[in-house]
Design goal:
The complex is a heterodimer.
Chain A lengths: L1 H17 L10 H14 L2 E2 L7 E7 L7 H6 L3 E2 L2 E8 L10 E4 L4 H13 L3 E4 L11 E6 L2 E7 H6 L3 E2 L1 H6 L2 E3 L5
Parallel strand pairs in A: 2-4, 2-5, 5-6, 6-7, 8-10
Antiparallel strand pairs in A: 1-9, 3-4, 7-8
Chain B lengths: L4 H16 L7 H13 L3 H6 L5 E2 L8 E2 L7 E5 H5 L6 H8 L3 E2 L16 E2 L7 E5 L2 E2 L29 E7 L4 H4 L6 E7 L7 E9 L6 E12 L3 E12 L34 E14 L5 E16 L22 E18 L5 E18 L14 E21 L2 E17 L3 H4 L22 E17 L4 E12 L3 E15 L2 E12 L3 H5 L2 E7 L2 E7 L5 H5 L8 E15 L2 E18 L3 E2 L4 H9 L2 E5 L1 E21 L5 E18 L10 H5 L2 H9 L4 E11 L2 E10 L2 E5 L2 E5 L2 E11 L4 E8 L37 E9 L1
Parallel strand pairs in B: 6-9, 24-28
Antiparallel strand pairs in B: 1-2, 3-8, 4-5, 6-7, 8-9, 10-11, 10-37, 11-12, 12-13, 13-14, 14-15, 15-16, 16-17, 17-18, 18-19, 19-20, 20-21, 21-22, 22-25, 23-24, 25-26, 26-29, 27-28, 29-30, 30-31, 31-32, 32-35, 33-34, 35-36, 36-37
Classes of the chains: A alpha/beta, B mainly beta.
């Protein structure tokens, strides 16, 4: 047995020593998917005020992404516009933005932000359960290691935001024609 | 195992050298960006198909986190994996996936046939804490009293939980009493029930063994009702009917008195040795009601009613315990169990304006085990004896009130809480005929399982309060330090204080080193403190009692019994996770656990030990006695290896494989001093060679598990290969070796459309059996005798099992 364990350990050591030769990887797919979805959703959205130079994504409250959003979007464009990432913690700090990713836990604060975003025609996205029903537009959830989308179409209409059919088609649940 | 710990530590340390030197080359953010960049090129529907990392909550109070980023070793079994085993019992499923999870299938062991105990990493059934959605699940009221793995313990019955209700099972492979309290010595199993976002489904399974017995008919339903703000009410119901299996050999002994010509007939198959005939009705509810202000009210509840029947030893016609007027050809007493088990946790949780998370809950758990005997008699009552009996019941109840608070302050995740727990244990007598000694013979009570007597009745309670803190400090992006402490005060034995320190360090994004050290304890269970079961005998004109006595009974006290103290443990783990690609991960963890004052049942203390003992026994009207005591110390160490790999072929088919290896070794390192009244035999009464062999070698030291899933279009193939290591069993005073065995399970499923799924499969497809006993002097146990297989066999002795499954999602 002792011999067997030693063999395992030695094999392992060889693997580890050789490991720098392999591409490194951080396997936080959930976080990466959230970061990616922010930009990918935008391609299926029409905003009423489309005459800005920049496309702005704002994250309010805690930033789980670190520098990921900045790095991912620094060379990318959305609707032929370069992308700026803003990080804010208060509703008053939200400037002219197209997408607002909300990580706020406090529900009354979240409700205020949603209300503000609807008035400003901002696409709101969050992974908080109940977000869509509270008036948020796109809710991202992860269930059994897969992404689930819930879209509040009514809220999008109220925000003067148009969501194209392909995005609506892949959502697990679309809130449409319901009183809010 | 005598492997060189120094070598292990040397290698762990050496890992830093080549890898830290490459740190500058492989910056964390760069890899995350590359990963996200690749995902960015996928279509929306492809993104929705991306499988994210497994997460687990157990072992941390700061929410779920990436399994591979955990500072303590955790395994997770998903609902999909569970379904594709074809098993309908959770214990069997976990045995297929969790290395070091042992689930033998004892038979002819009274109540244990119907609630079979499981163990983790070679330790005892009661040294594992089980949680449902993070809340403590109660243990069974059954005291395993026969010679099974886990003798002298009461464990949790995992088979009371409907499989359809489970989203995943998390298994923490580390001591965690400093976080969760008593019992978390070998590890913690946290069962997460399906919550928000699950599909409704109905599944039905039918199968039987290659021998044509053990027919399983099972159907379950999962139904989810959505509520406001993504709240839900989920209901799962299951009916499971498992027929008996029988692998007993024929009885070649003379059945009738000498000279009876019927003794020349073919040897009869008169015993039952295999799975009990069991029917379970199970129900589960999991619900969250979320209010507009975000406060969540929750409830989860489990219910199981089990009727089960299994044989005792056959009483031959010639047996002096048989009454030929009632059973001219002998009889097989059938022990029947009617078990009711339920629990619920209800509470509310939310976030205060200052971002403090709070969770206030109440948990109730109840187990009732009714013993009955059928096809039997009380020999001492003669021809008038009834043939079926109510032999009494045991009950266990626990209530817990818990308050958890948590807040993140800069780099600190700080959690703490208070807990109050009340437990109650009861034994209720059986009907008089089940235990009484009549005047026809000296064989008192129902044959097979004599009932609990009035003097065995127990109704005992205890309380404990606990206060705990559980913090994690993020020293940098690469270093986390965890610190936990827990104080408990029990109304029976006093207080405990335990701590845990954990450290994880990620020198590069592909590698995480982790280590932890902690102390822990296991409170003596109420069943160990108060279990009493005796039978009545007659010597001359004097009635006497023999059996198990609680430590507070006069005869036990006179024989040296004292109040039980908690088992105390110390733990150390060290290991690493290496993930060179999102599709490939490898982990290795070493563990070391010392347990002092392990609670054991003494051997039978008889008159022959000494004149002093004889005087005590006679004065108390007792023939022989045994009781629970803090008896021994043990050391368990071992190693866990995991390798997970996923690959997508160019034709879009996917292969996922998980390979794992577990090794553990237990040594009895000390025996406590026996009470002086027991004299020179005291030490051997506390622990004898049978006990030592069972503790050190009765469970497989080694497991290998290779899980492979291949998905192509609508087809899924799952192959599960298991190696069950060798073990030893003792018969009489002789130890027998049983070789390791490999088993292979196969599951083929086809998705007909969005709703329907069909599957066929086989467990142990190559019909592997454990080794039989060697030659013995016994006429009952041994190669080609009545009982040919050891009840310690980790995968039973049923052979192959074939099944068919249909599923409907809606």
């Amino acid at each position: 047995m002792k011999y067997k364990i030693k063999k395992i350990l030695i094999s392992l050591l060889i693997c580890i020593i050789l490991s720098p030769l392999l591409p490194t990887f951080a396997a936080n797919e959930e976080l990466a998917l959230q970061a990616v979805f922010l930009g990918r959703f935008a391609k299926f959205i029409d905003w009423p005020n489309n005459d800005k130079d920049k496309f702005v994504i704002t994250l309010i409250d805690e930033n789980p992404f670190g520098k990921l959003l900045d790095e991912l979007y620094k060379d990318k464009t959305i609707h032929d516009k370069s992308i700026e990432i803003h990080y804010v913690t208060r509703i008053d700090d939200i400037k002219d933005t197209d997408i607002l990713f909300i990580t706020l836990d406090n529900k009354s604060e979240m409700q205020k932000v949603i209300k503000y975003a609807q008035k400003q025609s901002i696409l709101t996205i969050s992974e908080h359960r109940g977000f869509a029903q509270r008036g948020g537009i796109i809710q991202l959830n992860f269930v059994m290691q897969k992404t689930q989308l819930k879209i509040n179409y009514d809220s999008a209409v109220k925000s003067n935001i148009k969501i194209s059919a392909p995005l609506l088609a892949i959502a697990q649940h679309v809130i449409k024609g319901e009183v809010q | 195992m005598k492997f060189n710990r120094t070598l292990f530590i040397t290698i762990i340390v050496s890992l830093f050298i080549p890898i830290t030197s490459s740190k500058a080359v492989f910056a964390d953010d760069k890899t995350e960006v590359e990963q996200a960049g690749e995902l960015y090129e996928k279509s929306l529907s492809e993104l929705l198909d991306v499988e994210t990392e497994l997460k687990a909550e157990v072992g941390s109070r700061s929410g779920d986190r990436d399994l591979l980023a955990s500072d303590v070793p955790i395994d997770v079994v998903t609902a999909e994996q569970m379904r594709q085993t074809g098993f309908t019992e959770l214990s069997k499923i976990l045995q297929r996936f969790i290395p070091g999870f042992n689930f033998p299938r004892p038979s002819i062991t009274d109540g244990t046939d119907h609630v079979r105990p499981f163990t983790l990493r070679g330790m005892n059934p009661d040294q594992v804490l089980v949680l449902i959605n993070g809340k403590r699940l109660h243990q069974s009221s059954l005291m395993n009293i026969n010679g099974t793995i886990g003798r002298g313990t009461s464990g949790v019955d995992l088979n009371t939980i409907p499989i359809a209700s489970i989203e995943r099972v998390e298994v923490l492979r580390d001591g965690a009493a400093a976080q969760y309290g008593s019992d978390a010595i070998a590890g913690v199993i946290n069962i997460i029930l399906k919550g928000f976002g699950h599909k409704n489904e109905i599944t039905a399974t039918y199968g039987e063994t290659k021998e044509g017995d053990g027919e399983v008919k099972q159907t379950d339903l999962f139904y989810s009702m959505p509520l406001n703000y993504d709240g839900f009410i989920n209901i799962s119901a299951e009916y499971r009917d498992r027929g008996e299996t029988n692998r007993a050999g024929v009885d070649s002994r003379d059945q009738y008195p000498s000279g009876d010509p019927r003794n020349d007939y073919d040897a009869p198959l008169n015993h039952h040795y295999g799975d009990a005939d069991t029917q379970d009705g199970l129900l589960s509810i999991n619900s969250e009601v979320i209010t507009e202000n975000g406060v969540t009210f929750y409830l989860h509840a489990l219910y199981d009613n089990r009727d089960s029947e299994a044989g005792a030893f056959f009483r031959r016609p010639v047996d002096n315990r048989n009454n030929t007027n009632i059973y001219p050809d002998g009889f097989l007493p059938m022990i029947v169990a009617d078990i009711e088990d339920y629990s619920f946790s209800t509470g509310s949780k939310g976030i205060l304006s200052n971002n403090i998370k709070w969770d206030l809950s109440y948990t109730y758990g109840y187990n009732e085990y009714e013993f009955g005997v059928e096809n039997s008699h009380n020999d001492s009552l003669g021809d008038d004896s009834p043939t079926s009996f109510d032999s009494g019941e045991t009950r266990y109840k626990q209530q817990i009130v818990n308050l958890d608070l948590a807040k993140k302050i800069k780099n600190w995740d700080i959690a703490g809480g208070l807990e109050f727990r009340n437990e109650n244990y009861q034994i209720h007598q059986g009907e008089e005929a089940s235990y009484i000694l009549g005047d026809v013979s000296n064989n008192a009570g129902a044959q097979g399982f004599p009932g609990f007597q009035p003097n065995n009745e127990v109704d005992e309670s205890r309380d404990n309060i606990a206060a705990y803190v559980d913090t994690k400090y993020h020293l940098s992006n690469d270093v986390d330090i965890g610190l936990a402490a827990r104080y408990e005060d029990y109304s029976d034995f006093g207080s405990t204080f335990d701590g845990k320190l954990s450290l994880s360090y990620r020198p590069v994004s592909t590698l995480m080193l982790r280590t932890s050290a902690s102390s822990g304890f296991r409170a003596p269970s109420l069943s160990q403190s108060y279990y009493t079961a005796t039978t009545t005998g007659l010597s001359g004109d004097t009635l006497y009692q023999t059996g198990t006595f609680s430590v507070n009974e006069p005869v036990a006290i006179a024989l040296g019994a004292v109040d039980l103290e908690p088992e105390e443990s110390t733990h150390f783990t060290a290991g690493f996770v290496y993930q060179p690609a999102s599709e490939l991960s490898f982990s290795m963890d070493y563990f070391y656990t010392e347990i002092d004052d392990r609670i054991m049942l003494t051997g039978n203390i008889k008159e022959t030990i000494s004149p002093e003992v004889k005087a005590i026994l006679n004065a108390n009207g007792v023939g022989s006695a045994r009781y629970f005591t803090n008896a021994i110390s043990t050391k368990t160490e071992g190693i866990d290896l995991r390798l997970n790999y996923k690959y997508q072929f160019s034709n879009k088919s996917i292969i996922k494989t998980g390979m794992s290896y577990h090794y553990n070794h237990t040594d009895v390192t000390g025996v406590n001093t026996a009470p002086s009244i027991l004299g020179a035999n005291g030490q051997s009464l506390l622990v004898n060679e049978v006990t030592i062999t069972t503790l050190e070698d009765g469970q497989p030291k080694e497991n290998i598990k290779i899980y492979t899933q291949y998905l192509y279009k609508n087809y899924t193939v799952v192959v599960n290969v298991n190696k069950f290591g060798s073990y030893k069993s003792v018969f009489g005073t002789t130890s027998y070796d049983f070789d390791s065995k490999w088993t292979t399970d196969l599951d083929l499923s086809y998705q007909l459309n969005d709703k329907f799924n069909i599957a066929v499969g086989a467990q142990n497809i190559f019909n592997e059996y454990p080794d039989k006993w060697g030659e013995t002097s016994s006429s009952i146990v041994g190669h080609d005798k009545i009982l040919q297989y050891s009840q310690y066999s980790p995968f039973g002795y049923n052979g192959a099992f074939y099944y068919f499954r249909v599923g409907l999602a809606f």
